[in-house]
Amino acid sequence: MDVDKHTLSRRFASSLGEVAWDTAGEGPDLLLVHGTPTSSVIWRPVIERLKKHYRLTWLDLPGYGASQKFAGQEVRLRAFARVVREFCREAGLKRPHMVGHDFGAAAVLGAHLVEGQEVASLVVADGVVLNPWGTDFSLHVSRHEAVFAAVPEYVHLAQLRAHLATAVARPLDRETEAALLAPWSGQDGQAAYYRQVAQYDHAYTAQLEQLYPELKVPFLVLWGALDQWVDIAVGRRLQQMVPEAELRVLPDAGHFSMLDTPGLFSRELENWLQQGALA
Q1: CA 219 – CA 91 distance, rounded (Å)
Q2: Host H or E run for residue 247
Q3: Can you tell me the distance from the alpha carbon of 178 to that of 157, in angstroms, rounded to the nearest whole number?
Q4: In this structure, what are the phi and psi dihedrals at residue 24, rounded to the nearest 5 degrees?
Q5: pLDDT of 169-205, one tens digit each?
Q6: CA pair distance 75, 61, nearest whole angstrom
Q7: Domains of the chain by residue range
């Protein structure tokens, strides 16, 4: 597989529509789950660095990236947790290490704590895991979904481009920015973007909060020190809620920490796995 082109060559019929996914490498199973408003594109630098030592698997969540999008589709956090569980069965991931970013963090936590998916360890990166959450822009959009969904495409993409720029500590390169914007372009893509914003699921994160103290697997929190979307204070609170959790702060990184500091992100993740989570 050509990681640079990041072509997702596999498809899985989930309960929420067709899911695009792929895998590369050999070794312990490591599942990478993206958040919003991104796709598995965000894992490109991590895949390239870790594929020699792990069997990496990644997917585009339903309604995101190259996965199916359709009117009336459920794209709530609780639904993503269910799909992650379904996907693990499909991909033969019996007890993987799971890494979740943003919404993906709640998805992997829910897959384990609510859906019963066995895991070897859990890693949360800049996660949407504690209430309240949501940027001022996203929350405003969620309250006025119909208005934003009806704007001309060039206005929609300009707003989204500006929004993505606040998620990084340094400008996105053109290729990555284009790859992140592409799934949300066109009539179907624009509708899908506002559909997922309208379905923000704060009740589910409230449910998960009650379960964090019950976690009994190795647990790592990775957080960008310059995250403007989810403040690092959330990461510190999460660490305190989970027994024996570790927190590793990534200097010079924003919310998309794996894009801002891909080398450091990958090293911290691999070092932590090697130091105990793989035992």
Answers
A1: 23
A2: strand 246-250
A3: 10
A4: -160, 155
A5: 999 999 999 999 999 999 999 999 999 998 888 999 9
A6: 9
A7: 10-133+202-277
The span from the CA of 67 to the CA of 18, in Å, is 6
CA 65 to CA 57: how far, in whole Å? 15
Two tokens, residue 48: 């390239």
- DSSP states along 198-221: HT--HHHHHHHHTTGGG--S-EEE
Distance of CA 133 to the CA centre of its chain: 15
Question: Rounded distance, CA 221 to CA 122, Å?
Answer: 9
Q: Which residue pairs, CB below 8 angstroms and at least 24 apart, start in 268-274?
A: 268/222, 269/46, 269/50, 269/99, 269/123, 269/220, 269/222, 270/50, 270/53, 272/123, 272/220, 272/246, 272/248, 273/28, 273/30, 273/97, 273/121
Q: Which residues contact 248 (CB under 8 A, 6 or more apart)?
A: 220, 221, 222, 223, 268, 272
| Model pLDDT for residues 62-97, shown as the tens digit of each residue | 999 999 999 999 999 999 999 999 999 999 999 999
What would be the CATH architecture of the domain defined by 10-133+202-277? 3-Layer(aba) Sandwich (3.40)
If phi > 0 it is left, if psi is from -120 to 50 it is alpha, else beta; for residue 134 that is left
